[in-house]
Amino acid sequence: MTTYSTTHLRYEPDLKGEILDLVPSQFRTPTNIRALLEGLAHGTQIAEDDAFAVLISLVLDTATHDQLDRWGRIVGEQRGGLIDDDYRRFIRARMLANRTAAGYEDQLEILSLITGTDRCFIRDLAPPGYEMWFVHEEAFDDAQAGRVRRFMDGVRPAAKPLVLVEAVTGYFGPDLDPWALGFDEGLFARAL
């Protein structure tokens, strides 16, 4: 038995076994009654499999291709050449951006969603600006970096300048930082 919590419906992969378990034992052995029950269960199983395949394709967690593009149109996020997994993250971030006031905590969550890392940080700079930076395993190409920058510019408060910094694990920084290699080696972070 598989249960999908996103739909609150239960998918039963073995209706034949379920039906035969419900039938009293004296009716299980006659071949004509058993054949009738198995035939009904088989047809019902096909309908259940098809219905759940359609249902699962509509849920954001499992949607792909055209269904995912429909989700993007609903929330206002264009695909722009992203693969399904990356696009799904941007859709989730757009959903969050559409329903929040974009305070610091919300912006950190959005940055975490669109960059795919939970190593995101924020700090105030000289008034009225602030800095957000994130650390991940390999640097974004220019197209990805530009998309992240545009997205964050769209959710930040208009009157507050934002410095957005991308760092790769092993960057140039203090030895106390667990992701930095120290001041004598490491890669430079970059502003997006």
Largest sheet strand order: 3-4-5-8
Overall shape: it is elongated
Poorly predicted segments: none
Strand count? 8
Based on secondary structure, the structural category is alpha/beta
Helices and strands, in N-to-C order?
A: EEHHHHHEEHEEEE
How would you characterize the largest beta sheet? 4 strands, mixed
Mean pLDDT: 85
Radius of gyration: 26 Å
Strand proportion: 15-25%
Distinct helical segment count = 6
Give helix % range.
40-55%
Distance between the termini: 48 Å
Number of domains: 2
Quick recap:
The protein is an alpha/beta fold and 192 residues long. The chain has two domains: 2-58; 114-191, no CATH class. The two termini are 48 Å apart.
Provide keyphrases for this structure.
192 residues, alpha/beta, 2 domains, 46% helix, 17% strand, elongated
Structural notes for this entry:
There is one protein chain. The chain is of the alpha/beta class and about 190 residues long. It folds into two domains: about 1-60; about 115-190, no CATH class. About 45% of the residues lie in helices and about 15% in strands. The protein is built from six helices and eight strands. It has helices at about 15-20, 30-60, 65-75, 85-100, 105-115, 140-155; strands at about 1-5, 10, 120-125, 130-135, 160-170, 170, 180, 190. The chain has a four-stranded mixed beta sheet, covered by helices on one side. A two-stranded antiparallel ribbon has the order 1-2. Strands 6-7 form a two-stranded parallel sheet. Helix 1 (about 15-20) crosses helix 2, helix 3 (about 65-75) runs parallel beside helix 4 and helix 4 (about 85-100) packs antiparallel against helix 5. The chain starts with a strand and ends with a strand.
